Amino acid sequence: MNKRTKQGSLIAAAWIAVCLASGTGAYWLGNARSNAKNDDHEPSSPQPVTILPEPRQRMRDLRPIAPMLEPAIDVRKNLTLIELLDRIHQHIDEATADPSTNPEIKALLLQLRLTEIDDALAHIEAYPEHERKKLRHLILLRWGALDGMAAMEHALAHTPNARLRQAIDNVLTGWAGSDPEGAFAWYREVTKSDTFPGGKGRLQSQLWSIFSNWASQDFDAAFEALTAMESKDDRRSAWFGLAKVVGIESYRDDLLENARGIEDRERYDEAMSAVLSAWAFYSPVEAASWIEKAEFEPRERQRRQFDLGTTWVQSDPATAANWLLSQTDDRWRGTTISMVGQMWAHRDPNALAAWIIEIGLSEDTDMAVRHLVSSTASLNPKNALEWARRITDERSRIRAMKEVVTTWERQAPGAATAHLQSIELSEAERQAVGEMNSR
Fold first, then answer.
1. Contact (CB, 8 A) for 277 and 257
2. Residue 355 to residues 81, 326, 370, 375: CA-CA distances in angstroms?
3. Is 30 left (phi over 0), alpha (psi -120 to 50) or beta?
4. Residue of 70, 22, 327 whose CA lies nearest to 178
5. Which residues are within 8 A (CB) of 393 and not within 5 positions of it... i.e. 6 or more apart?
6. Which end of the chain has fewer CB atoms < 10 Å from its terminal CB, N or C?
7. Lowest mean pLDDT, pick from 12-16, 129-133, 320-324
8. pTM beyond 0.85, yes or no
């Protein structure tokens, strides 16, 4: 047993402390002056957007499932099985999120013994249906940790098809926490054919939990199993899990060394993308520093910057965008700004607008403005139209204007036409609007 394997139980505990934080901000779209070139159709300054989409949480919570083995503290004391289940039930009513993440529920659930599983499932039949479902999911989670194979056989045999996916997820989550190698062996066996209920896709998403737990217990074995996979989709899901050990400093160097040592180009890119995306959740500044110091060819450096940036921009768009721009040479500036705009536009269009104005409107910002226009056209079409008119490329500008006008007319017939008649347009814009009105 190597050093990392021996450290497994300690490392697994460290996972619990890792969590994902995200913030929101409030900015006014277009409440700043543009430095675009003046011409005969210079639009007026865009007005603030007054209806904004809520910033979306796009990132999956990366906290691994802590192994649900033997209880560390005896909170059961002299409770009977029925009293234990009733106590769990009380906490479920009070829980505001996923009951399995509630500390009180978890502490109680850990007291449930393997020999009590059948009686527990029988007892909860007396509860109302919606409460019974939650309790059954928790019992399956615990059973999966104690005896994954038996729990899975029960779930497959006794769960209605409408709830089967949730039951399988519960069992595999528990199983992955206590015996990830066994859970993966079962996965390989059942996915050899297309006979599994719901198909392979039902299971594939669970590879991330199997490999995140496996890597924290025996990194070498998990890495060997992942690199032996033939399915690209399987590898992608598994990498999403295994790469999370980048959040543990003692594993980071080995993870990076192993990933960079992969010879097959496609598999190498899969690995590096997963590692840097995971690192962006835990410590994007450290990841950025590593990229800056690592030896890469120019084109690959740009790929690795995008691997980090596409994830980082979801949690801290301004910092990620400015870092990406500082690392990008003139050849890739427009591509970088476009990528930032695509990721940022629906999350916080106001902040994106402020950033575009800060860096200066130019040909490089055209695609980012297009993303901004698309994300706000239905919320504030008048303001979106003013932004569309700031696109420097004439064809792209007219396409964006048409997109807004079409959306606006669908919402309020005649409103866009009336507005266009009240503003000064270039010859090409007037011609495009005339073509739309003639249809």
1. no
2. 59, 14, 14, 16
3. left
4. 70
5. 363, 366
6. C
7. 12-16
8. no
- Quickly tell me which residue has 């835990």 as its tokens: 282
pLDDT in tens, 336-367: 999 999 999 988 999 999 999 999 999 999 99
Q: What is the pLDDT of residues 216-270, one digit of tens each?
A: 999 999 999 999 999 999 999 999 999 999 998 889 999 999 999 999 999 999 9
| CA-based nearest residue to 165, from 142, 198, 187 | 198
Q: Are 117 and 139 in contact (CB under 8 A)?
A: yes
Provide the sign of the torsion angle of the four alpha carbons 32, 37, 38, 40, taken in this order.
Answer: negative
Q: pLDDT confidence of 125, banded at 50, 70, 90?
A: very high
Closest CA to 317 of 58, 60, 32: 58
CA distances in angstroms from 374 to 380, 399, 401, listed in the order given: 11, 11, 10
CA distance 192 to 203: 12
Among candidates 284, 202, 207, which has minimal Cα distance to 239?
A: 207
- Give Cα separations from 280 to 124, 210, 292, 309 (angstroms): 42, 21, 14, 8
Model pLDDT, residue 191: 86
Whether pLDDT at 71 is above 80? no
- Contact between 133 and 96 under an 8 Å Cβ cutoff? The reply is no
DSSP at 316: -
Q: How far is CA 114 from the centre of its chain?
A: 35
Start-to-end CA distance of the chain, whole Å, equals: 75
